[in-house]
């Protein structure tokens, strides 16, 4: 892992505490084993095909002006399109390879602080408050994220419009040097977005986070980490969309905690990538807190979508509700593995976990593994999962009314996804999500046709 040494981590700059944190993480990374399929958290995955020596962090801006300009143009075009779909927004932050390049604030933002680490001044400890420890890939982000997007909502502030964050991640081959002396590195670029969202007591906010890249071929590694914290009585609605290129590995980690009587809603949608892993850990940490987790994925080609969830109950009278829906077509695969954990003392917990999978082609495959870990008696927990093809009665109903078979299946799958898309905790994102699903289903139909 010569490209991921401590000296390269420290060279990213920033305040002294951040440089030290990066250095410590890089030192730990050097002696930590990479995840293995032998571990329960990585079962059914191709994780052993990930070789870090094939990747390198992107150089600092200015090392290759032509490439930087091209990346900015592609990212800016994507951001403009997304902004058009979300015209009523409190703020819009755009990053390229984890570095904020623009921050647009509107009058709707009020007292909320949004931007890079500089918005916090000299404040320390913003990182690791929700996600402490972690495996080698978490340490990789700890060591090599170039900046942090911070959303800091003070007590009792209420935002009626979403804050939008777009991480544009480049793919292809890394370039070292500049001008005529620039050299192409055989290693693909690695990108490490980092986001922290903090809500004070009694506040309310919506956040949309998008991880995107150029469509089509181009190797890359994207390892985002997001930490969400909802203070006592706060209401946080968060939606994430991943639309990377077809050869990019995406391994994300979302860690969230809800305080007393707080409500935390998350929705993760995975559409792009060669291997797309989304792990969400939601901790109901205060009495009366509630977490709602939604997740969706659509697999095409030879994609692998891997969704892992943890509904963690550490306090009494807490509630969690999870719904994960996905479809796999052509030769794609999916894995869902979820755990409901009720710790000792978390009496009168209510926890529900549901996973539904559609298998659209004979070459596709889906695994569903729900789990329970209960340490209390006075609780109510349930889980359910289904894996199967399109309902033949629904297909027959549509075809009997003159709808061609391929179109009938497409309509059924759209209805399957529309059920969960409509439940997005950020209503303004529903239209964009629906169009993304329609576009990908149309592409599958044209390839099969």
What features would you describe in this structure?
It is a single chain. The chain is α/β, with parallel strands linked by helices and 449 residues long. The relative contact order is 0.09. It has helices at 6-10, 16-31, 65-85, 136-144, 392-399, 405-421, 430-448, and strands spanning 55-57, 91-96, 99-105, 113-115, 149-153, 163-168, 175-176, 183-184, 188-191, 194-199, 204-212, 220-222, 225-230, 235-243, 248-258, 263-270, 275-284, 290-299, 304-313, 319-328, 333-342, 349-359, 365-374, 379-388. Helices cover 21% and strands 38% of the residues. Strands 1, 4, 5, 9, 10, 12, 13, 15, 17, 19, 21 and 23 form a 12-stranded mixed β-sheet that branches. Strands 3-2-6-11-14-16-18-20-22-24 form a 10-stranded mixed β-sheet, covered by helices on one side. Strands 7-8 form a two-stranded antiparallel sheet. It folds into 2 domains: 2-395, no CATH class; 396-449, no CATH class.
Characteristic key phrases:
24 strands, twelve-stranded mixed β-sheet, single chain, globular, alpha/beta, ten-stranded mixed β-sheet, 449 residues
Distance between the amino and carboxyl termini? 44 Å
**Unreliable stretches covering 5 or more consecutive residues:** 175-182
Number of strands: 24
For the sheet with most strands, the description reads: 12 strands, mixed
- Shape summary: globular
- Helical content class: 10-25%
Number of helices: 7
Q: How many structural domains?
A: 2
- Rounded to the nearest angstrom, the radius of gyration is 22 Å
**Average pLDDT, all residues:** 91
Which structural category do the helix and sheet elements fall into? alpha/beta
Strand portion: 35-45%
């Amino acid at each position: 892992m010569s490209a991921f040494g401590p000296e390269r981590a420290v060279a990213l700059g920033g305040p002294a505490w951040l440089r030290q944190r990066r250095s410590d993480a890089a030192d730990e990374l050097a002696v930590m084993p990479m995840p293995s399929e032998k571990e329960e958290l990585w079962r059914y995955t191709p994780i052993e095909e990930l070789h870090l020596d094939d990747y390198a962090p992107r150089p600092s801006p200015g090392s290759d002006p032509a490439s930087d300009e091209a990346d900015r143009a592609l990212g800016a075009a994507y951001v403009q399109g997304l902004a058009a779909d979300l015209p009523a927004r409190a703020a819009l932050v755009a990053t390229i390879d984890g570095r904020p390049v623009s921050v647009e604030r509107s009058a709707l933002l009020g007292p909320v602080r949004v931007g890079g680490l500089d918005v916090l001044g000299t404040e320390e400890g913003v990182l690791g408050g929700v996600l402490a420890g972690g495996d080698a890939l978490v340490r990789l982000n700890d060591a090599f994220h170039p900046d942090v997007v911070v959303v800091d909502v003070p007590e009792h502030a209420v935002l009626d419009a979403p804050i939008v964050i777009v991480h544009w991640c480049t793919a292809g081959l890394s370039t070292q040097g500049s001008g005529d002396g620039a050299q192409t590195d055989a290693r693909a670029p690695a990108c490490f977005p980092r986001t922290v969202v903090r809500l004070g007591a009694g506040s309310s906010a919506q956040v949309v986070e998008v991880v995107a890249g150029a469509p089509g071929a181009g190797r890359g590694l994207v390892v985002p980490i997001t930490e969400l914290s909802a203070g006592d009585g706060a209401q946080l609605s968060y939606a994430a969309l991943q639309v990377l290129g077809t050869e990019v590995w995406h391994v994300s980690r979302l860690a969230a905690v809800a305080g007393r009587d707080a409500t935390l809603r998350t929705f993760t949608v995975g559409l792009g990538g060669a291997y797309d892993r989304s792990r969400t850990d939601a901790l109901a940490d205060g009495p009366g807190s509630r977490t709602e987790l939604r997740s969706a994925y659509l697999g095409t080609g030879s994609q692998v979508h891997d969704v892992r969830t943890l509904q963690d109950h550490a306090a009494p009278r807490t509630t969690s509700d999870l719904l994960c829906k996905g479809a796999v077509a052509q030769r794609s695969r999916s894995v869902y593995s979820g755990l409901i954990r009720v710790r000792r003392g978390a009496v009168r917990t209510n926890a529900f976990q549901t996973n539904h999978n559609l298998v659209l082609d004979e070459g596709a495959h889906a695994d569903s593994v729900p789990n329970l870990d209960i340490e209390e008696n006075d609780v109510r927990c349930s889980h359910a999962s289904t894996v199967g093809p399109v309902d033949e009665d629904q297909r027959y109903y549509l075809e009997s009314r003159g709808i061609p078979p391929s179109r009938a299946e497409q309509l059924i799958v759209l209805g399957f996804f529309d059920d969960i898309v409509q439940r997005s905790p950020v209503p303004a994102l529903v239209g964009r999500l629906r169009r993304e699903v329609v576009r990908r289903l149309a592409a599958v139909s044209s390839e099969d046709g």
